[in-house]
Amino acid sequence: MKSTHFKWLKLSVLLFMVAGITGMVASLGVSVANWNIESLSFTRFRPLHTFFALMAEMTGVIGIVAILLQKCSFRRSGYLNIWMFTGMTFFIVLSSILIFAGNFSGREYFSWDPRLSFLPAGALISTIFLLFKHYAVFYRLSPEGFWLLGLGLLFTLGGLLESHFWLIPGIGNNIVKDLTVQWHGIDTFVAGLNASIYGGSIYFLQSTPKPLRKKWLYVIAVFSLLFTFGHHHYMSPQPHYLKILAFLASMVAMVSFIRHLRAFLKLKVKVNRKMDWSTLMLRSVEVWTIVSVASGVLFAIPQINFYIHGTYFVVIHAMGSMIGVNLLLIFLVGFFIHGKISPARERRIKFSVWTVNVALTGLWFVLGIAGFIKGLGRLHSNYWVFTQEMKPVLYFFPVLGGILTTAIIHLGAEIFIFQRRSIVNEKPKEAMLLTSDIPAKMKELT
Amino acid sequence: MFKTSSKRIVFPVLIYSLVSFAIILTSGNSKSFTLSTVEETGLQVYQKKNCMTCHSMYGLGGHIGPDLTNVASRNDEQYVKNTILFGRGKMPSFDLGEEELRQLLDFLRRIDESTIYPVKSSNDIFGELKNEGSR
Question: What does the mean pLDDT of chain A come to?
């Protein structure tokens, strides 16, 4: 029974590794002019890449809940967990085969056959059911973590369902209604995942139960979460009121940015070689969170959005958030629940975390320059001209993607190696779940 | 304390449901945005061939190929047909029948009628409609 709970996290780590590889192949399709290998074409690998990335995050958050449940000895959830895991694995394997074979939904991000969507929806519903069934324990451990995890999972489920509304007659055959609903679904799904991964990781990373914050902060968070999607549509013929609401919601997100920045500056971080692996990972998460929120707010300013909308800026913004924040948090939990880390292994982990940071920074420059060229080029020239101008810059895309993928594969492999020293069978110690001093916690656990 | 937390979960979920409902009710209400049966089949061809992996509409979608919002009015029809059937640059050729091709082109024409993208003037930061009445 115990292994099923960890299998979710292992599946998530594996999917992140595969997402890296498929992303790298897709980036070759972007950069190499004569990329004519049909079986490795961009049209196959881009949907595969986004599919694996989304599934990695979804299984990661389910894995975090499963481990928390197991640690609290809710053994009865084990059977449901096995069914969920089997269903999701079947869904992921079958969908990847179908996508590779050319059977797409043809939709952005939700590229799998929609007839299979009942499986991820079922896994989410079961996870939400188990989480709320044991709310008392989760809430006592961390009110803030429970709110983020619970609401995040509900919004993820909502976003998933909403992304299938196009199948309803009257929505799918209306181009503007369909796009508006579709992007609201995508935004809610991703925002829900971000919130739940962050909320779930709180249980592993904090020393004291975090109380609920002030009411106005929740109002701002929910308002932003519900309406920022509209900034994707500044240029589409959606209702004008949604554009105004989107602009307000995105500017309100500035509060979140300032709070993150203030919290980070208060830490007075000094980056040095002696920094232990867990602190390095946590600080990296904090930096990429600030970068993601700041770029999100900036890109939502209509005068800036005018230039960056539909360019590679959007790609790197998503990569920064998915890899720099979500992947590192899930991997951190993965390392955290497994055994002792030797100094040699710690050096290797630190090297790979630094590599992830450097590669992501490099990608910000490369895709940022490509974004500028496209953003300005489409105003003054045509597609063929600015595509030629972007070419030299985009050669760096697969190179940096390869470096990033290698580092992700290494970090993932280290988690698989640690699995041998699993401590999951130990008697549940609630206090252990809330320890911020990771090295001290590792010492205690081993 | 838990009561406060549960309220903070229940209310956002209720508001979320209301917002989703409002979006469905209020967006794309102009008849010009509703596809005819032929155009809808064209949309299905667009999805079946996974065009949005490389192309975008209103800037939403893939980044490799050109945006297709106004491809119908900015190019000669024969040019668009040839590009689909025989490929161009990185775009592969697509084996579409006469009927499918016509449906796809009808769909692209309908998209073209909805708006102008990319907008060339930074005065139009909230986009530019081809037909103001359709807002």
Answer: 85
Are A172 and A166 contacting, i.e. CB atoms less than 8 angstroms apart? yes
| Residue-wise pLDDT tens digits, A345-372 | 888 999 999 999 999 999 999 999 999 9
Do residues A58 and A9 make contact, with C-beta atoms less than 8 angstroms apart?
Answer: no
Distance from CA of A220 to the nearest CA of B (A): 11
Closest CA to A322 of A408, A247, A217, A203: A408
Report in angstroms the alpha-carbon separations of B109 from A263, A266, B32, B48, B49. Answer: 51, 56, 12, 18, 18
Half-sphere exposure of A434 (CA within 13 A, CB side): 18
| Chain A residues touching residue B55 (CB < 8 angstroms) | none
Would you say residue A430 has pLDDT above 60? no
Distance from CA of A442 to the nearest CA of B (A): 31
Q: Is B61 left (phi over 0), alpha (psi -120 to 50) or beta?
A: left
Q: CB of B79 within 8 Å of any CB in chain A?
A: no
- ipTM for this prediction: 0.88
A422 band by pLDDT with thresholds 50, 70 and 90 = very low
- For B116, the enclosing helix (H) or strand (E) is strand B115-116
Q: State whether A181 and B23 contact (CB < 8 Å).
A: yes
Q: How confident is the model at residue A67 (pLDDT cuts 50, 70, 90)?
A: confident
Match 């554009």 to its residue by tokens.
A243
Residue range A248-257: average pLDDT?
A: 86
Strand, coil or helix: what is A10? Answer: helix
pTM confidence score = 0.90
CA distance A435 to B17: 36
Does residue A24 sit in helix, strand or coil?
A: helix
The Cβ of residue A253 has, within 10 Å, a number of other Cβ atoms equal to 21
State how far the Cα of A199 lies from the Cα of A150, in Å rounded to an integer.
8
CA distance B101 to chain A (A): 17
